[in-house]
Amino acid sequence: MLVRGLTVGTVLVMTGCGSNTLDPGVGSWSSVAFIEAYGTRETDAADFNGSEMFLWGQAWRVGFVFSIRDETWRRCNTNGAPRGRLGASASWVGDRFVLWGGSLCPPEEGGGGGCDVGYAYDPRADRWSTLSKTNQPSPRYKHAAVWTGERLLVWGGEHAVNVFNDGASYDPVLDAWEPIPVTAETPSPRKQPTLLWTGREMLVWGGLGPGSVPGALNDGALYDPTTKTWRTISMDGAPGYRANYAAVWTGTEMIVWGGSGCVDECSDGAAFAPATQRWRKLSSVRSPGYRVFHSAVWSGSHVIVWGGFGNGDGGNDSGALYDPVNDTWTPMARAPIGRGSHFAFWTERGMLVWSGGGSVANTFGVPDGAFFKP
Fold first, then answer.
1. DSSP for 182-246?
2. Are 31 and 44 in contact (CB under 8 A)?
3. Which helix (H) or strand (E) is 329 found in, with range?
4. Distance set, CA 40 to CA 15, 59, 366 (Å)
5. Which of 121, 263, 327, 347 is deepest in the core (most CB within 10 A)?
6. Distance between terminal CA atoms of the chain?
7. Which strand ranges, in their side-by-side order, compose the sheet holding 269-273?
8. How large is the C-alpha radius of gyration of the chain?
9. How far, in whole angstroms, is CA 144 from its chain's centroid?
């Protein structure tokens, strides 16, 4: 929790590019152990299961598991592992890590247009296995996936000139897929949508529509996998069209901040409550301001918005904590290294940030990470 014990911290300097200016603010930063073998190679997919972070990279075609408790790394067995792929979804599914979809696969996995073989990694056995292909979604990339606690829901994405508004539900116990129905209430086709699990429904919002110059979207819907029904999200008070924003679920609301494509810079945000179908505008006082390719994580009491790219090419080393109860922002201590297009997860040790890029032109040049403790 972040309500009590907020302190003004001292930044611990890490190696890398970006700012290392000491700046007073809430919390403190500490570096994460560096993987020598990892170098500057891109992390394409990552997820966190509560105690371990799994990384997968297209360039190096191997996975790593990082334990946050003792800060140790281990390389995954490569026997039976997927070949290189880009744009796949990565999800902890129970006690396994599932990699599905993507592009630039070898011919035996679907070819360059779209990967049609999904993989599961068991960290205890250090073993890879393939998923059933029966009733799985058609090959795609730039889709999204979310774990419900029982099933993995995969939805949206694109393949060549096609953009989708369908998907499927995967049961890891039965190794079985079931299509997600498309109805009049289903959102329009889109890639890079937000998918969040509310505890009862899959929340789909935003993303990019079809076309050679795809437009940003600001609508969505909620899908109940138990009743297999959709219901549209109210547009009354919704934030403007935007892309490259960050969104997170707090337990009662989806919080959206920043992005690009607004009439003016997207230096604003909004909260949506499915229970009431109401949007509310977030305060901008002491907010993080305009940024894209940033992250947002939920600590249990605050939304932490950090990093990204703003006015300038370099990665942003600043951020702020948002209190949804009081609608207030508190600036964070600046990080040693600014970055965007990174991964961020809430852990028992605070927010874990990994990888990312130091500039818009180089979105994977920072091969390290840090913990932020509020």
1. --TTSPPP-BS-EEEE-SSSEEEE--B-STTTTPB---EEEEETTTTEEEEPP-TTPPPP-BS-E
2. no
3. strand 328-331
4. 13, 10, 7
5. 121
6. 9
7. 246-249, 254-257, 269-273, 278-281
8. 20
9. 9
In one-letter notation, the amino acid at residue 150 is E
The overall pTM is greater than 0.70? yes
- Per-residue pLDDT of the chain (374 residues), as tens digits, is 322 222 223 222 233 333 333 346 899 999 987 665 554 456 678 999 999 999 887 666 788 899 999 999 898 999 999 887 888 999 999 999 999 999 988 888 887 678 999 999 999 999 999 999 999 999 999 999 999 999 999 999 999 889 999 999 999 999 999 999 999 999 999 999 999 999 999 999 999 999 877 799 999 999 999 999 999 999 999 999 999 999 999 999 999 999 998 877 799 999 999 999 999 999 999 999 999 999 999 999 999 999 999 876 678 999 999 999 999 999 999 998 899 999 999 999 999 999 888 776 565 667 789 999 99
Q: Which residue has the tokens 């329009």?
A: 188
Look at residue 108 and give its three-state secondary structure.
helix
Cα separations in angstroms, 292 against 256, 262, 266: 12, 12, 9
Long-range contacts from 359-366, C-beta under 8 angstroms, 24+ separation: 359/309, 359/313, 359/314, 359/315, 360/293, 360/309, 360/313, 361/313, 363/293, 364/40, 364/41, 364/42, 364/43, 365/17, 365/40, 366/16, 366/17, 366/18, 366/315, 366/337, 366/339, 366/342
